[in-house]
Amino acid sequence: MSDKEYDADSVDAVHKTLLESTKAIPWKIDWDTMTFAYIGPQIEPLLGWTQESWVTAEDWAMRIHPDDRDYVVNFCISQSKEGIDHEADYRALTKDNGYVWIRDVVHVVRKENGDVEALVGFMFDISERKKAEEELIRLQAELEALSFMDGLTGIANRRRLDAALETEWASARRSGTPLSLVMLDVDYFKQYNDRYGHGQGDTCLKDVAETLQAAAARPRDVLARFGGEEFALLLPETDADAAKAIAERCIRLIAAREIPHEASRIGPLVTVSIGVGTTHTFTEDEPRRFVDFVDGLLYQAKHNGRNRIESGTM
Predict the structure, then answer these.
(1) What domains are there in the chain, each with its CATH number?
(2) What are the residue boundaries of the PAC domain, all occurrences included (predicted)?
(3) What is the 3-state secondary structure (H, E, C) of the chain?
(4) Active-site residue 82, yes or no?
(5) Is this structure's pTM higher than 0.90?
(6) pLDDT tens for residues 81-104?
(7) 150-176, pLDDT tens digit by residue?
């Protein structure tokens, strides 16, 4: 035999050694019998199941996490029947009741007549990759949440309010339910800053925001810092009477907080002026017109003496 000639057993031995020395787990399933012709010994250190325990395709299916099983099995069967190479990510169950994220890469082997003969592939442990992806998703969600949060008070910011208003405007238009908006302004806040300093002014705004959160009791209510010393409370499915009652509660809550304000021209404590607007009619007009309407009511409250509520229906 020449140096370039090898017998079949030697070649098979080399292939087997190569396959079993990789971290990827090779496998082969006979299509007609749906039994494993081979699975690499790497499977046992990874999942705890011995090579000998992988007998049929049912063993593979039952070792997929229940939440992933139906989709993965149906997908792989349909792709295999069509003769389409494919891959699937899923959680494989370990013998000790844990799970490992697997990427299964599948190649369909066909007979000369085109029928499926076998499936061959590799299983890859992608747990670390999945952890990194999940962490990235978590960080993205956290960043998105921060982008909707006012940095000083921790409540929603103007961007979050605008997005919620768009959503609730469309919802109210479909359902025909009323939508209300409460806008509040801390009275004589410039004088507060002049008297106590901007650091204490920031503390005052945080105290006001914390106090007003008690008025935004329902899941869909949105309390936001509208800008500067101005706050807004969006109230879906709330009529004019209910909205005014909530505004009155805001007045009481702020008074009960007893935040000192010696520079106020109203009294010794922090107070707020409030505009309350309600609409039942949802035209093609942008919600911006509604905000302007309620802002006008807030201006009236300030013009008419502050520490009061002005309300109306658009």
Answers:
(1) 8-131 (3.30.450.20), 148-313 (3.30.70.270)
(2) 86-138
(3) CCCCCCCHHHHHHHHHHHHHCCCCEEEEEECCCCEEEEECCCHHHHHCCCHHHCCEHHHHHHCECHHHHHHHHHHHHHHHHCCCCEEEEEEEECCCCCEEEEEEEEEEEECCCCCEEEEEEEEEECHHHHHHHHHHHHHHHHHHHHHCECCCCCCECHHHHHHHHHHHHHHHHHHCCCEEEEEEEECCHHHHHHHHCHHHHHHHHHHHHHHHCCCCCCCCCEEEEEECCEEEEEEECCCHHHHHHHHHHHHHHHHHHCCECCCCCCCCECCEEEEEEEECCCCCCCCHHHHHHHHHHHHHHHHCCCCCEEEEEC
(4) no
(5) no
(6) 999 999 999 999 999 999 999 999
(7) 889 999 999 999 999 999 998 888 888
